[in-house]
Amino acid sequence: MKAIYEKDGLYSSLRPVVDWCCRHSYRRFEMHGEENLPEDGALILAPNHTNTLMDALVMLRAYKGPTVFGARADIFKKPAIARIMHFLRILPMVRQRDGLRNVLKNHENTETIVSTLEHGVRFCIFPEGKHRTMHSLLPLGKGVLRAALAANAKFGHVKPVYIVPVGIEYGDWFRYRSTCMITYGEPINVTQFVKEFDVQNEAQVFEPLKKELASRMSGLITYISDDENYDGKWALVRILSCPQRTRSLYGRMALNKGIISRIENACGQHPEEMAVLLCQAGRFSTEMKRKKLSHWSAGKKNPAGNALLKGLAAFAMLPYFIFCAIASLPLWATFMALKKKLKDKAFRNTAGFGVKLAMGPIVFALWAVLALCLLEWPLALALSVLTIPSYSFFHDYIEFMRRWISDLRFMSDRKLKEEYCRICSRAEEMLGITR
Predict the structure, then answer these.
(1) Residue ranges making up the domain that contains 175
(2) What is the structure's pLDDT at 124?
(3) How far apart are the first and last CA of the chain?
(4) What are 197-206's contacts with CB under 8 Å, separation 24+?
(5) Contact call for residues 320 and 393 (beta carbons, < 8 A)
(6) In the chain, which residues have pLDDT < 50?
(7) DSSP E strand stretches across 173-264
(8) How many Å apart are CA 182 and CA 61, to the nearest integer?
(9) How far apart are CA 240 and CA 164, in angstroms?
(10) What is the sign, positive or negative, of the torsion defined by CA atoms of 57, 62, 63, 64?
(11) What is residue 106's predicted lDDT score, i.e. its pLDDT?
(12) Does residue 132 lie within any of the structural domains?
């Protein structure tokens, strides 16, 4: 069996298709901080983990070269699955909960990771160990630290070992065709870190290294301290960020982080008043969700004019939507069926990607053959080209209509509009935020 980092012809031929399907699983895809990636050493990428398999896929898509990943070991129990995972360049990472006997297998995996890094291939591991759809971080595990310190002990005297914190930010964890942004942070030079501590036992640097990594990771995402007020804080952020729109995903995150900073400061200075405000924001958010309304419907300066323009756009795009609905029927029908069976909603984006990857090429090829058999080639070619984005456009149009209907319903809901104005007015007073 080939080493996991070695070039594989089949893998290389499939990679562009996977990357293309991944990119088009999102309406917008941004990358920032690539200048922070060192070129003089071994790189261990450490992203946050919120959106199941899509986290690994967006990290793979972000870099054209080879990347080896780490994943929880329980996925590898069946030999056939283990072989597939090896082909996909994914290594099992055993955790303490998997039992002491299995943890001992990590020594072999660590040697593979070190060899991967020594051969100039990146290794990506999610330090939290499991995904969670929240704007926060779970406690980091030691796997990323063990790999970095083992690599440093093996070849740190030849080239430095870096842990690069990465922030992955999604517009929505559960809706297919949302937005995605990857931000690379300032790397931690593990080789230098160990030298500065000047200790005999490298285990003594675990805690300070883990603390530094957690600090840098939290600075790359919309981060809310994970406490009992999380829901209220995030609800207030969504309410206050609606009127202050920005096209840039990075700008949107910066806006959210600025609001969170103000909320945290106000909670420290006026805890009782803020508890009331956060409770109001939480109730408002719950009511919006119950009525299936989007937070983006609030705070519009000219809601009637905006709704009119959306209605005209929806009418203009309707013919192509009907075409796309027919052309991509096998795909979206399969996706809808899978969605109903998923217990964890975070897997919805993965299901949407998987359907496009597995069925898309076949369905679109069949349409092309059918068009060539029934139509003149110029028309057949045009029809074939129009079918390629049909699956994506189908989802985009559905989302567009959902927001348009939400705008109309919010405009007619007097109680919700009044509650929104009360919350914003109180937030303006408490946080110094103007609408």
Answers:
(1) 9-218
(2) 95
(3) 61
(4) 202/149, 202/152, 202/153, 205/149, 206/142, 206/145
(5) yes
(6) 100
(7) 178-184, 188-189
(8) 11
(9) 32
(10) positive
(11) 63
(12) yes
